[in-house]
Amino acid sequence: MPTMIIGVLAMINNQVSPSIYGQNILIAIVGGIISFLVLFRDLKSPKKKTNIIVITCILILFLLTFLDKGLHDVHRWIAIGPLRFNIALVFVPLLIIQLSSLIKSKRFCVTFGFALFFTVFLFFHPDASQLTAFTISISILLLNIKKNKNIQILLLSVFILLIIFSWSHLDQLAPVSYVEDILSLVKEMGIGWLVIGLISLFILPMPFFLFPPTNAKPLSLSLGVYFLISILSSFFGNFPVPIMGYGTSPFIGYLIAITWYVDNKK
Questions:
Q1: 10 Å Cβ neighbour count for 145?
Q2: Helix 18-40 × helix 248-265 angle, to 10°
Q3: Residue spans per domain, the chain
Q4: pLDDT per position in the chain (266 positions), as tens?
Q5: What's the burial of 20, exposed, middle or buried (CB within 10 Å: 0-12/13-18/19+)?
Q6: Which of these, 244, 252, 224, lies nearest to 180 by C-alpha position?
């Protein structure tokens, strides 16, 4: 909530339309309520085969982004009415959780295959930020596998090459002041606001690092790394600043992860 509120105040200070920052407020409230409802339900553990179904559905959504006309050959979104959702920001946290479950079920080759597929999709979106965040976070889980060392080395080598190539060929989309440059708007309110804003941003991944669930420490670390890299990437390229900048997609992705986190802490 502090990160969202600081972003909203910066938008108001710069006369951004209420229809823009109002979406952040709405998704924070509605998403928070849904998260609480999910946590209060007595959910049974999903069957192992459900993981592949969920991952396949996410795979289809990634494919659908290429049917969207996109912007300057960038295909990251699916439009539903007036809303546009960045599919990677929404579903990569859930994807990491589901791939972790596949690893536990010892479906290593299937996990490697899915990880490679999604990395390639992120490369062609193109989205250097999400590609880097996903590959590094999923590598933490893959390195915990004691078998298939040759496949692991090959996959990690592909990851490194795609990360390097994606950052050397960034898209040409211009930054939007209240999305990618939101920290500049926060700075205009005063250096104190900027310091508080930066602290609030880096608090977001801290629970995953400092207080991981005892039954899922590697996955918690992986999710923390994902969010940390997503935040850091916004300092090195024109990528959305999660939660603080305009956009409902990062809210949904973070709420999925933090709901998983709290449920496992229970």
A1: 15
A2: 20
A3: 2-265
A4: 999 999 999 999 999 999 999 999 999 999 999 999 999 876 555 555 688 899 999 999 999 988 877 677 788 888 887 788 999 999 999 999 999 998 888 777 888 889 999 999 999 988 999 999 999 999 999 888 877 778 888 888 999 999 999 999 887 788 888 899 999 999 999 999 999 999 999 999 999 999 999 889 999 999 999 999 999 999 998 899 999 999 899 999 999 999 999 999 87
A5: middle
A6: 244
